[in-house]
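Tutorial handout. Part one gives the primary structure; part two gives the three-dimensional structure as tokens.
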Amino acid sequence: MPETKYKRPDIVYRDGKPAAVIIELNDYEELLEQIEDVEDIAFLKDLRRQPMDFISLEDLLKERPVSV
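Part two.
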């Protein structure tokens, strides 16, 4: 039988009920990256809802002088 790209996860049961899932490490890392992407998008959407305040470059340089 040919091997497929994705393996089925193993489900761990406790007291006859599903309690945990065992997946490939690469799949787990990909899920973490996707969660981080979703969190980043939600954060950016929240930032866009807030009013933006701008200051001139001249005022910024007065507050934070550039040292070379």
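Part three, for discussion. Residues 25-49 form the longest helix (25 residues). The chain has one domain: 10-63.
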